[in-house]
Amino acid sequence: MIPKIAPSWQAELKTEFEKPYFEQLSEFVKSEYDAHPCFPPENEIYNAFNHCAFEAIKVVIIGQDPYHGLGQANGLCFSVHDGMKHPPSLINIFKEIEADLKVPYPKSGNLERWANQGVLLLNATLTVKAHQAGSHQNRGWERFTDTVIKTISDKKEQVVFLLWGGFAKKKTKLIDTTKHPVLSSGHPSPLSANRGYWFGNGHFGKTNAFLNDFGLSPINW
């Protein structure tokens, strides 16, 4: 079953969609959405791909799980729908951008504006049951998103990968670091940030410096 995903991604991932594990994953996700409130909304599960075409990728940010609160998740890691209160990790992301780039803190936590500039905002697990963090882990999503990361690494050049926290850093093994810059730091969650592992990493300015070096337009964070 090929999901409703942008044509550029269908071309890259068609063989993955045809594998038995993805069929089983699709059946599991459908049964969960039929039986329980789940997030993001079904039509936004593949938003990360539908807002950032394969050929447009400049930057990849890897998250773990969608937000599991009502109305938060919109299919992009760390992002929430317009009008939603900013979760703590997103607050710390915006504070770091504010300090790093001297730009004002934004009103909206919807990061579609980043995705539309070539930032793939990829959660390792694309769905979750309401109020149950991690409830859709180890069902096949991680195999799929690992393939996405490796496909980007293998087929593209000079993509900046931002790996925040221990979980994301484990994805380094999927990335050819001889042709892609990788920036790692602690996670923006309060637990990590308050211990000094997040603030001051300068990732947003460093990313734009890499993009300038590659002859690409910087991201308007």
From TrEMBL:
<feature type="active site" description="Proton acceptor">
    <location>
        <position position="65"/>
    </location>
</feature>
<keyword id="KW-0963">Cytoplasm</keyword>
<dbReference type="InterPro" id="IPR005122">
    <property type="entry name" value="Uracil-DNA_glycosylase-like"/>
</dbReference>
<comment type="function">
    <text>Excises uracil residues from the DNA which can arise as a result of misincorporation of dUMP residues by DNA polymerase or due to deamination of cytosine.</text>
</comment>
<keyword id="KW-0234">DNA repair</keyword>
<feature type="domain" description="Uracil-DNA glycosylase-like">
    <location>
        <begin position="50"/>
        <end position="211"/>
    </location>
</feature>
<dbReference type="InterPro" id="IPR036895">
    <property type="entry name" value="Uracil-DNA_glycosylase-like_sf"/>
</dbReference>
<dbReference type="GO" id="GO:0097510">
    <property type="term" value="P:base-excision repair, AP site formation via deaminated base removal"/>
</dbReference>
<dbReference type="Pfam" id="PF03167">
    <property type="entry name" value="UDG"/>
</dbReference>
<dbReference type="InterPro" id="IPR018085">
    <property type="entry name" value="Ura-DNA_Glyclase_AS"/>
</dbReference>
<dbReference type="InterPro" id="IPR002043">
    <property type="entry name" value="UDG_fam1"/>
</dbReference>
<keyword id="KW-0227">DNA damage</keyword>
<comment type="similarity">
    <text>Belongs to the uracil-DNA glycosylase (UDG) superfamily. UNG family.</text>
</comment>
<dbReference type="GO" id="GO:0004844">
    <property type="term" value="F:uracil DNA N-glycosylase activity"/>
</dbReference>
<dbReference type="GO" id="GO:0005737">
    <property type="term" value="C:cytoplasm"/>
</dbReference>
<keyword id="KW-0326">Glycosidase</keyword>
<protein>
    <recommendedName>
        <fullName>Uracil-DNA glycosylase</fullName>
        <ecNumber>3.2.2.27</ecNumber>
    </recommendedName>
</protein>
<keyword id="KW-0378">Hydrolase</keyword>
